[in-house]
Write a structure and sequence with these properties.
By secondary structure, this protein is of the alpha/beta class. The protein is built from twelve helices and ten strands. It is elongated, with a radius of gyration of 22 Å.
Length: 356
């Protein structure tokens, strides 16, 4: 009996995690629901499932999109009717509420952290809007967040700068779980900065929080070494910033400025996580990392190199994933993509160049 209750609790938890991350409805573990309904023939399980999803307080505060909730509830009704269970009024009431609701161009995705708390983000429905791709969470941000949560000691007590923060997934996760001393989010597009500041506040972060955080506008093409040194970052992270070949040169130059430190100072930890959509673009970025850069007169000669810290092979099993559903151990990744992803640690080797 206890084992059965534990299994039911795990199913409910899993549905909650995937529902709030807006995982594709067809990819949810519906087989487990069918088995529960066949065993109980009671609407009690459906009531509990609703309580963990559409009727949960988080859904009232940070609701997934109207369309997503409608698809979810319609599928749940279909499974309930197929199992021959008695109709449940609260299920049909929940559907009626979203059937007549107005669609919005933005909605919330919430990602569950290991501690049980959620990172909730307001994101756009469209992948590209107002001329930018920065108003949604991309897969590499979720990979970086998971890797950081597995290695919190690398960020504890540090000042962390994030490049291309987007809507804030990676940075907020690090702030909530890795104990940095300060965290500086950065981006360039005005609409992205506005949404980023909103998400930072929604998750209880600000200049007076622990860690203290701020959001900076940072243009890779114009940022000076003096401006970057003033940030005082001893760790730098970025996710899904290698997607446009026209920007990779500016990114490498920016990284070189961040790594140009006197020999008496420790280099910052620099981690770049990328989803490999176009191998040619990503390969070009890694190639530029290996080329000696032309310093200003009197500056240190710099060769930036990289070391792979993790890799997810295209079409391969998800690292640390749950075998039955493919859900992440840390309950963050919601994407159904099977693209390859890679995390690099970028360092300055001075006159040395080591191909990785």
């Amino acid at each position: 009996m206890a084992h059965r209750l534990a299994e039911t609790a795990e199913i409910l938890k899993e549905f909650s995690v995937l529902f709030f991350a807006m995982r594709r409805v067809a990819a949810l573990p519906w087989t487990a629901v069918e088995e529960e309904l066949q065993n109980s023939r009671s609407p009690g399980f459906i009531s509990e499932l609703l309580a963990q999803t559409c009727l949960h307080p988080l859904c009232q505060k940070f609701p997934p999109s109207v369309r997503y909730r409608r698809l979810f509830l319609s599928e749940l009704i279909k499974r309930q009717e197929a199992a021959g269970c008695d109709p449940l009024d609260e299920l049909y009431d929940a559907l009626a509420e979203v059937v007549g609701a107005e669609e919005s161009s933005e909605s919330f995705r919430s990602y569950r952290l290991p501690c049980g708390a959620f990172v909730s983000l307001l994101e756009n429905a469209a992948l590209i809007s107002v001329g930018t791709t920065g108003l949604v969470t991309w897969e590499a941000a979720l990979y970086l967040a998971e890797w950081a949560l597995d290695h919190p000691q690398l960020f504890a007590g540090r000042t962390v700068l994030e490049l291309g923060s987007g809507v804030g997934m990676s940075g907020i996760s690090i702030c909530r779980s890795c104990s940095p001393r300060r965290f500086v989010f950065s981006d360039c597009h005005p609409a992205v900065l506005q949404k980023l500041r909103q998400n930072v506040r929604l998750n209880g972060l600000g200049s007076d929080s622990r860690p203290a955080v701020r959001v900076d506008q940072l243009d890779w093409t114009t940022a000076t070494g003096e401006e970057l040194r003033a940030i005082g970052a001893d760790a730098v992270v970025a996710a899904d910033v290698v997607f446009d070949p026209d920007l990779t040169g500016s990114l490498v130059q920016l990284l070189s400025k961040l790594l140009q430190r006197p020999s008496t100072e420790a280099q910052p930890l620099v981690l770049i996580c990328s989803t490999i959509r176009n191998p040619q673009t990503y390969g070009g970025f890694k190639l530029q990392l290996g080329k000696p850069l032309c310093p200003a007169r009197g500056a240190m000669k710099l060769t930036v190199t990289s070391r792979r810290v993790f890799v997810h092979r295209k079409g391969g099993p998800r690292p640390r994933g749950d075998e039955r559903t493919g859900a992440s151990r840390l309950s963050l990744r919601q994407s159904d993509s099977h693209r390859a992803a890679e995390g690099l640690q970028v360092t300055n080797k001075g006159f040395l160049h080591k191909h990785v």
